[in-house]
Structure formats: C-alpha cells, structure tokens
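worker-03 picked up job from queue 'complexes'. Input manifest follows; two sequence lines, order preserved.
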Amino acid sequence: MLLTGLEDTLYMTFLSAAIGLAIGLPLGAILTITSKGHALESPRLNRTLGAVVNMGRSFPSLILIILLLPLSRLIVGTTLGPTAALVPLSVEMAPFIGRITENAFKEVEKGKIEAVLAMGTGPWAMVCKILVPEALPSLVRGVTLILISTLGLTAIAGCIGAGGLGSLAIRYGYQRFRTDIMFATVSLLILLVTAIQLTGNRVARRIGRRRHVYE
Amino acid sequence: MISVRDLRKTFVTPAAKVAALAGVDLDIRKGDIFGIVGFSGSGKSTLLRCINLLERPDSGTVRMEGKETTTLDRRQLGALRQKVGMIFQHFHLFDARTVADNIAYPLEIAKVGRKRIAARVEELASLVGIADKLKAYPGQLSGGQKQRVAIARALANDPIVLLSDEATSALDPETTWSILQLLKDINVNTGLTIAFVTHELDVVRVLCNRVAVLEAGRVMEKGEVGQVFHNPRSLAGKRLVEISRGFREGSLYTDGGGI
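worker-03 finished. Artifact:
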C-alpha cells in the first residue's frame, strides 16, 4: 500500500511539474522579455499576462482542483486516480512556475541584458542563448522549489481522490486513526523533500563551479 | 559617419525632470577616436547610448553612414546594432560561456556558419592577446583580460563603430594603459572608428584625436584634442583641464582657487 502510494506520488509530482514547466517556462520568458527595456517590450501584453498569472495564483488550491475536475474528465476521461490529477496539478502549478522563472531571469544583471540588446539580439536568442544559460543555477533552484511545492499539492489533491501518500495519510492515518501509517507517510514525504532539495542544491552548485562563479 | 543633431533627452524621475541631453550636435568622422568627456551627470553616457538607441531620444536625429537610425523598426534596429560594437565599464561577459563562446555570440546571432565562426574567434582572440584563454570562463579572468574578451566580442561582426562606455574606468592604471594601446593599435591597423566616453582626461589625451566636452547635457566645446587641452575656451573645458593638471602636480585647484 505504501509502495503504491509512493509510486503514485512520484508519478504525479514529476509529471505534473514537467507539464507545469512546459507551460510555466515560456510564460516566465514572455513575462520577462515583454517587460520594460527588454527584447520584446510590450507593456500591454506584460500587464495582461501578469493579471492572468495573478488570477491563477489567487485560487485556493483545493478550490482550483475541484473547478478543474471537469477538464480532467474531458482530457483523461476520469476524475479519479493520479492521471486525472495531472490536469489540475499542472494548471495550478503553471502560473507559479511562470513567476519563479521570471524571478530567475530577472536576476540576470540589467547591464548584461543591455549589452546583449546592444549586439542586436532578438527575443528568441535572448531567451534561448542568454537568459536560460545565464540564469541556469537560479532556474535549477527554482525547479527544486517547484518540485517540493508540487509534492505538497499532490497531498491536497489526495483529499479528493487523486491517490498517493497524501491520500493515504488522510484516509488511513487521519480518518482511521492509524498512527503508524500517518508516521510512515510523513516520514516518506520528509525523505522525498530532503532528497529533492539536496539534489537541487548540488546541481546548482556544480553548474556555478564549472563556470568559476562562487556564491 | 555619425552625425547627431539637436539631440534631446529628459529623464522624468519622481523628484524632478532631468535634462540629460539638451540639444547636442556632434559629428564623428570615419577613423576618429572621438572622446566624449564631462563630469558625472553631464549626459555623456546618455549621448553614447542614444547612438545605438539603448536610450530613445525625445527629439533630434542620429545618422549613421547617412542613414537615420531613430526611425528604424525593431528588426532593422537589430541589424544596425549588429554593426555597432559596444564595450562597458563592467564588461558584461556571459558567465555561462567560455571566452571562445563569448566572442562567438555576435557571430551566432548574425547567422555565420560554424567553421567561419571558429576561424574568426581565433583571429580575434590573437588580435586582443587572449589566444591562450579561449577555453576559460570569464570567472577565471582578471579585469583587463575580461575587457580584452569584451573588445574581441564587440569587434566580431566588423562593426562600423565601437562605442565605449567608461571601458577603462574600472581598471588599474597599468591595465588601462594596455587596453588603450590595444584600441589605438586596432584603430591604426583597421581604421576602426571609436566613440569613447570617459571622465578620465588622461585617457582622452593618450587615446583620442578629437574630443567633445559635455556639461549639463550640452556640448561646451569640441575640437582636436591638442587644441582643447592646451587652450580650452569653455569654462567646463578649463575646469576639467585644471583639475587634471592639479592632480598631476599633487594639489588641486579649480577656478584659480586652491582646495
């Protein structure tokens, strides 16, 4: 039971984070390059996207997940199980990932961005050749943060039939007073979070070291 | 080559409106090393940044090789900027790229083929004297080496002009001297036009053939370096020259009074 729970949790976390990244990374990139003094300056697009992102982030997670259940039924055909949870989880994560990405990209010095613009760089090259590589250590730390947040979110989705460790903790540990299962699930979650964080830190540091940039 | 007419730019800050450029006229000829000097806040950097439109002037015109630049659209401006090199006080190299890849970047976005890039990078690296550092990352280089890489990068696409924004102001005197020699050599050997913004008068004296003195967003004086330095006519020019002379003599005088 615990093993299935762990499997479901890992499946939901990594896959929905990946789908979320596929939406959120471009979102963050557009938010960055449409800002003032950037490669594709466009205040209107920037404001509109910013508003959409803020709206997406305002919903309490559980409410958004419930609201998106019909969408899961449309795409996956069911509202139960880990696969059905992928849809709401990715949609929930995307705006957050957009902001994290934007933050990472904005950490690239303004002067450097100007130098890049002064060379005649277009929006594509700006994102692919400059922002992503230059901000890579921050992006890696961002992905760490994203994975851990998604992990937390899977537990909430577990309340309404997504399965996984969170669901076990609620159904057995809480509702059936099985303290041993509660303890086991929480321990597993702690291990997962620690492992993700340590790996993220190590990767980010290794990238920095390769470039001889020490923080 | 570059002609600037009645250029105006005002920065609106919450506290006040600052006229960074209040009607600047300037002509930079082909092959010039043109110094733009002034005290902090005189508008010299803004002027330089208006030439490649990092800063949009409020009014006035900038012509480069006869073509008006202020009316270009985004794509045309990109193409123009590929032909205008720029170097900075803080180098702005890419930490994620090796020296070779830093120099290659302008060529990549100009869609030059891989083989030609490799050959051009070698050529540029030996021109600026960093041929042994091609595989290093900027994080491993000294300030002077970084500026050499930045110069190589700025020259990659054979620019029609090199803009230099305080490029030696963060370097020690010896390194400054070597960078100036490098720029001068390149100017002599290739006829590269350079616009050099600085507050260091000695740098202008060594490097430039013509100079403009800016104050409060206006050109107070312009001409041959020798003439401006030996016989400054404007008050701003006189003050700059006095101060620079004062430093050399070990004491500081302005407007005839000692400090």
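worker-03 released lock.
The mean pLDDT of chain B is 93.
The two ends of chain B are 42 Å apart (CA to CA).
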